[in-house]
Amino acid sequence: MKIVIAGAGIFGTAIANAIKKEHNIVLYSRSMSIVEDINNNRRNTKYFPNKILSKKISASNDLHTFEDADILFLCVPSYSILSLFSTIKISKNCLVINGAKGYGNEKELIPEALSHIIPNEIISFKGPSFATEMMYELPTSFTVGTQSPENFKTVQNLFRKGLIFLDHSEDILGIELVSIIKNIYAIVIGIVDATYNSANVRFLIFTKAMKEIKMIIEHFGHSSDILFNYAGVGDFGLTSLNDLSRNRTLGLLIGKGFLNAELGNSVILEGVRSVEKLTSILAFAENLKTPLLTNLNELLQSKISNKEFLKLILN
Ligand SMILES: NC(=O)C1=CN([C@@H]2O[C@H](COP(=O)(O)OP(=O)(O)OC[C@H]3O[C@@H](n4cnc5c(N)ncnc54)[C@H](OP(=O)(O)O)[C@@H]3O)[C@@H](O)[C@H]2O)C=CC1
Ligand SMILES: O=C(CO)COP(=O)(O)O
């Protein structure tokens, strides 16, 4: 079985490390220096300077490597997935497993956006899963979103020799959506924590955030039961309450007054882009009040100050 992982960043490398025991894995990277580092030195120095990688993990920057993949993990930022698929071909039997947490295009989730290009079911794979902790082989959980019990079994088999625990949902789009929304509200909690550093205020806003998340999920026709999958409360809690999260850290920086900090084109932009997109998708949704989301969007566009933002979300 050929397993290809698109993206040799922290998540792609951690996934490769988690399934290496039984399988050979090809990590696709657009950067030749990373490919050479992995193949020649058994290291991915840019992302894990202190880790030696297994011989079972090789790297490639050849776009043809996708063509005979049986399993393809998507571990590149969400906004790069469509352009990646415009340059590669995959088999119609290839199992595509999406780990990216963001929209596929302006309005559509990644499985929706990819459905215009490929017929394959896109399996959603989202967890409360800091890649750095996975790399140090700490027990980690994921939700597998698939409508096919067979595909769920295949994913279970991939991870059966490690410390990865899986639950299952048939609601692929719901799991995709919740993985986007949790990043947005993690930014909000970061801002609140940077300002107040108070357990009372944190969980006042955390509770409001949970209510908004539930309303948004239901607005799009999903059952809020998915919040009790690992990808739900688990990933929202992990991302919003732990400083390892880039989205929470962005919120902390904003709260400390660094809103104009240079973000470059990094994966951190994923959460910010999601705020803009979800706000515009919901712009005409009547009877749906999402003050945390809409005021965060105003704040990110510098239309209101931190002080005004906090006043508005506390009310
Ligand atoms: N970090 C985590 O704990 C988790 C992350 N995720 C999700 O996984 C995705 C990747 O995140 P993560 O690994 O953390 O991010 P990183 O920034 O560590 O890695 C991103 C990887 O994607 C590559 N990449 C970036 N832009 C492009 C592009 N335009 N075309 C092709 N390749 C590109 C990078 O290549 P290069 O090195 O050349 O820049 C790098 O290999 C995100 O959607 C994230 O939300 C999911 C679960 C956990
Ligand atoms: O999604 C993540 C872990 O589940 C990582 O979150 P950040 O992108 O905020 O670091």
TrEMBL record:
Organism whose genome encodes this protein: Rhizosphaericola mali
Q: InterPro entries of this UniProt entry?
A: 6-PGluconate_DH-like_C_sf, 6PGD_dom2, G3P_DH_NAD-dep, G3P_DH_NAD-dep_C, G3P_DH_NAD-dep_N, NAD(P)-bd_dom_sf
Q: Where does NAD(+) bind?
A: G7, A8, G9, I10, F11, G12, A131, R246
The Glycerol-3-phosphate dehydrogenase NAD-dependent C-terminal domain is annotated at 171-310
Q: Locate the active site.
A: K182 (proton acceptor)
Protein name in the entry: Glycerol-3-phosphate dehydrogenase
Question: EC?
Answer: 1.1.1.94
Domain of life of the native organism: Bacteria
Reactions it catalyzes: sn-glycerol 3-phosphate + NADP(+) = dihydroxyacetone phosphate + NADPH + H(+)
* MF (Gene Ontology): glycerol-3-phosphate dehydrogenase (NADP+) activity; NAD binding
Q: Which GO terms describe its cellular component?
A: cytosol
Gene3D superfamilies in the cross-refs: N-(1-d-carboxylethyl)-l-norvaline Dehydrogenase, domain 2, NAD(P)-binding Rossmann-like Domain
**Domain Glycerol-3-phosphate dehydrogenase NAD-dependent N-terminal, residue spans:** 2-150
Record-listed substrate binding positions: K101, R246, N247
Q: Which family does it belong to?
A: Belongs to the NAD-dependent glycerol-3-phosphate dehydrogenase family.
